[in-house]
Amino acid sequence: MNDTIVKNFENNCNSQKILSENVDVAALIRFIQQMKIPELFSCFSDPRQQSKVTYSISSLALWAFATCIFRQGSKRSLYSTLEQLSPAQREGVLHFLGITGKELPHSCTVDAALANVNYEELNRMLLEMFDQMNTRKFFYNHAATLLPDNTYYIGTDGYHLHTYAHPHAVDEQGNNKCPYCLPRKHHVGTEKETVSWVHTVITFVFICGDFKIPLYMYPLKAQQVNTEQNDEKLKQECELTAAHVVLPLIRERFPKLHFTFLRDGLYANRPFLRLCLTLCFDYEIVRKTNSLTTLGRKCDELTKLALYQKSYSHQEIEVIKTRNIKRKAAWFNGVDLGDALKTNVLRFEESEVRADGTICLQYKGEWLCSKRLSKPNCFRRAEIGRLRWKQEDFHNTCKNRGFNIEHDMARTNPDLLFTWKLMTFIAFFVFEIFSLSTVAKSARGSRSLMKFAKDMLQQLVNVLWAKIQSSPILKRERVQFRFSWNSS
Given a cut of 90, is residue 345 above it in pLDDT? Predict the structure, then answer.
């Protein structure tokens, strides 16, 4: 390995932490072991002739996992780093991957093996990891933070993952063969008419405050939706289609858990509310003025009644430093939707009362709620309804903070491409929980999460494996990770 690269690694490592009793990356290795990530990877499909296999499917999956959890951004970036390592520097990586030999696999070897893995196996792995955390009472032991209302909040959102000017996977005749490419026509009927190809994925995420972990990713196929409609309507159809497929899968996997679905006005329709009723999902869904208009008019009429004005509305003023925040709520229980459906409606306003007495409206919203509403819970329900915004930060992290999920990891193989995307989700899941452990917070210090992740790879190649292996956290027979939600 050349001197420039070694110097860069040394400059980026936290030298004080390397000299401490525990090496940072040792804590991550132990956490990965406790989550049984290698064992879960070993269950992946592997039709290779085992007598001729050099690397196990678990080791090759861990190579891909390392690309994501150490936030390398691309497999080329990781491979370029690893191919320049000396035998001594390679030792830590070999142990991380569970390889007994002295050679590291090429990225093409990784791709060739993962191409045999159906990406749904990684979705099932995400659900299995979620189940493990439940079995170990991770959520139960931190219920005040993660389950404050004794329910698991699930949000969903869709976005265009890739856009191509030309089909990225073609047959011998040059025609598109990617089933996930949704054609989009631009400047139709003009000389500038063009066609682009997009991948749209719908993600399902557990949300509680700033904590979120991915549960499922659903890529849409062109045959499932009407690709002739405009972008906004197509996105809406994609989201609704995915919800009707994935929510039943989640309920089947977790028949006893109490879930609450949080989402925007797209889902404020009778078929989806009936789906929630059938699956025993609670919900809190935004209602916009152009949806369920008859229900809106019924609520408008009820607000005129003295009984509702007195007994079904509430307001409060909270003083935050020099600001006075005024909140108003009105609620309507058991409103008939027709088709033997009823729902509860919450209307909420939040304003700032200025020193001169003027009121500045900051937020106004309305939700359909499966739970009955009352004076004691109306403001809490409004707070819950706004939790869904947190999912946007999940997407931002996947795109912009080292995971680089929009990068084409396997352009010509559509299924392998989504396997890589889901590997990013698995890495996010693991790192999101690990970063909340007290040992990780102590090791991280003031570094960003992205730099912390990158530095641990640098430790893995710069610190002798004997030093990492001698860390007490790896030597102890049993280790209990403790978690903290304090910002410090």
Answer: yes
Of 15-19, 281-285, 457-461, least confident by mean pLDDT is 15-19
Q: What is residue 334's predicted lDDT score, i.e. its pLDDT?
A: 95
35 domain-assigned: yes
Q: Which domain holds residue 256?
A: 149-286+388-400
What pLDDT, on the 0 to 100 scale, is given for residue 126? 98
- 339-342 contacts, C-beta under 8 A, 24 or more apart: 339/270, 339/274, 341/270, 341/273, 341/274, 341/277
Q: What is the CATH number of the domain that holds 258?
A: 3.30.420
Average pLDDT over the chain reads: 89
Q: What's the number of domains the chain is made of?
A: 3
In this structure, of 20-24, 39-43, 173-177, 419-423, the range with the lowest mean pLDDT score is: 20-24
**140 in any annotated domain:** no
Give long-range contacts, CB 8 A cutoff, 24+ apart: 438-444.
438/481, 438/482, 438/483, 438/484, 439/22, 439/27, 439/473, 439/481, 439/482, 440/27, 440/28, 440/31, 441/484, 441/488, 443/14, 443/17, 443/22, 443/24, 443/27, 444/24
